[in-house]
Amino acid sequence: MGNKEGKVVGVELNDETIDRLTKNTNYTPEQIHQWHEAFLRDCPNGKLSPRQFTEVYKKFYPEHEAEKYSSQVFRTFDMDSNGYIDFVEFLLAVNVNSNGDVRDKLGLAFDIYDINSNGQIDKKEMTKVITAIYDLLGEENRKGDNSPENRVKKIMEKLDLNDDKNISRDEFVDGCLKDDVLRQLLAPNV
């Protein structure tokens, strides 16, 4: 019994956390409590591990390779880089995905591509994520124009407006807003 109670310590919602989440999301205190209960059902210790996160992705993409892409998404959601997603990180990410405007969602997509979190996406990072997306979607045609390297070359040409071999957040968001095909490739759920 004491062990079970020990697990729950630190996962209860306090007024400060609820206040922070109501200010930074579109959720009411009641909805936050509902999300919290559901989160604790799946993660009783209040921590969503990388393995659990990947298992969720595998449910959506059972036929394909989910590990590489889900690890990029996990890194983005784990805002404090402590190796797990807590409830606050989880709800903030859910809020952007569900309620964010197009710019917010594209900003989140940018963060997924910006693997080293330096505020820029370089060719290497873009190639890594495009390859992970291909794996996730089961894309087998990776030759010629459809190879990850050639795809990235075209993306860089379109988005890297100042020709510094990097894509800034503004270049990414503005470029995706102007080009529906590019947005569909780089941020399909936006």
**Number of contiguous helices:** 11
Helix/strand order: HHHHHHHEHHEHH
Radius of gyration: 18 Å
Q: Outline, from the CA principal axes?
A: globular
**Please, how many domains?**
2
What do the pLDDT scores average to? 88
Number of beta-strand segments: 2
Helical fraction equals 55-70%
Instruction: State the CATH superfamily name of the largest domain.
Output: EF-hand
Major sheet: arrangement of strands: 1-2
Content-based structural category: mainly alpha
CATH architecture of the largest domain: Orthogonal Bundle
CATH topology-level fold name of the largest domain: Recoverin, domain 1
End-to-end separation in angstroms reads 46 Å
- Spans of 5+ residues with little confidence (pLDDT < 50)? 1-9
Keywords: Calcium, Metal-binding, Repeat
Family: Belongs to the recoverin family.
Organism: Adineta steineri
GO molecular function, one term: calcium ion binding
